[in-house]
Specification:
By secondary structure, the chain is mainly alpha-helical. The chain contains 15 helices and three strands. It has helices at about 5-20, 30-40, 45-60, 65, 70-80, 85-100, 110-115, 120-130, 140-150, 160-170, 175-190, 210-215, 235-245, 255-260, 265-275; strands at about 250-255, 280-285, 285-290. A three-stranded antiparallel sheet has the order 1-3-2. The protein binds a DNA duplex through helix 2, helix 3, helix 6, helix 8 and helix 9. Keywords: DNA damage, DNA repair, Glycosidase, Hydrolase, Iron, Iron-sulfur, Metal-binding.
Length: about 290
DNA sequence: TATACGTGGCA
DNA sequence: TTGCCAAGTAT
């Protein structure tokens, strides 16, 4: 009789068989490639990131290459990925890498965490996935898997708790290389099987030792997060206006912006917001463009 | 801690 | 069709 496989063995074996081939997971992928992917994947599905990531790395193979261009080019190349301030932050991070780290993506968590647009998750992810360092990586997928398998609840709490970080640390393999693979494996399990809406428990490698399944898959009963409104919001308006600037090679006249949003009050407010965020700049009395 | 911040695919 | 969702960060 062989001993039943451990939770870790099950998940690592599953990942070995089911991991998607993603460019930023290739052994030859640079730390910059990993970093770009992490920025793009914040709140954005893999399928939409793939083509933009490829074009980005082709055009800007290093942080220095991006840092040498106007931030507006980063916003333009970001395309319709959403949350364009991420493009601005990635550009600013590239400049910081050139200034503070000689153009090399830093490997230390604290140095990464200090870069614009890099929070707790992204710093840990870059350190773990690009440099194979031992860090607890807590993204929404990992948190959901832990909540179910180890916690017995359908969904994690709205924000990361101390208990979660401690739990993550307690199950993180000692060996750094194994720890990094463990993190991406749990993340992949959450993305492909232990999904938010329709979990594939029947094909889950740890389904028979999942606390949530054992409890009969009780529905989430925690605080309800209000769905984010979209139609008619300032956010939608900003998106419309920025799309006009992105798709134009030169300065855009106010009339071109007027054409994409009917409400003048909201339109002005959104434009002011874009200028405030440095996603757009005013270059004349009535003309605007992406930042230089 | 709650809120703002894009976008498009899918049920 | 409308609602929900997808590798968060900054304030």
């Amino acid at each position: 009789m062989t001993a039943p496989a451990t939770l870790h063995e099950r998940i690592l074996d599953w990942y070995d068989d089911h991991a998607r081939d993603l460019p930023w997971r290739e052994p030859s992928a640079s730390a910059w490639s990993v970093m770009v992917s992490e920025f793009m994947l914040q709140q954005t599905p893999v399928a939409r990131v793939l083509p933009v990531h490829e074009a980005w790395l082709e055009r800007w193979p290093t942080p220095a290459a991006l840092a040498a261009e106007p931030s507006g080019e980063a916003v333009r190349a970001w395309g319709r990925l959403g949350y364009p301030r991420r493009a601005l932050r990635l550009h600013a991070a590239a400049q910081a890498i050139v200034e503070r780290h000689g153009g090399e993506v830093p490997s230390a968590y604290d140095a990464l965490r200090a870069l614009p647009g890099v929070g707790d998750y992204t710093a840990a992810a870059i350190a773990a996935f690009a440099f194979r360092a031992r860090h607890v990586v807590l993204d929404t997928n990992v948190r959901r898997v832990f909540a179910r398998v180890l916690g017995g609840t359908e969904l994690p709490t709205p924000s990361v708790t101390k208990a979660e970080r401690e739990l993550g640390a307690s199950v993180l393999p000692e060996d750094p290389e194994t720890a990094a693979t463990w993190s991406v494996a749990v993340m992949e399990l959450g993305a492909l099987v232990c999904t938010a809406a329709k979990p594939g428990c029947a094909r889950c490698p740890v389904g028979d030792r999942c606390a949530w399944q054992a409890a009969g898959r009780p529905a989430y009963d925690g605080p309800v997060r209000r769905p984010q409104a979209w139609a008619g919001t300032d956010r939608q308006c900003r998106g419309r206006l920025l799309a006009v600037l992105r798709e134009s090679t030169g300065p855009v006249h106010r009339s071109a912006l007027d054409a994409v949003w009917p409400d003048p009050v909201q339109r002005e407010r959104a434009l002011a917001g874009l200028l405030e965020d440095r996603l757009a700049v005013q270059v004349g009395p009535d003309t605007f463009t992406l930042p230089g």
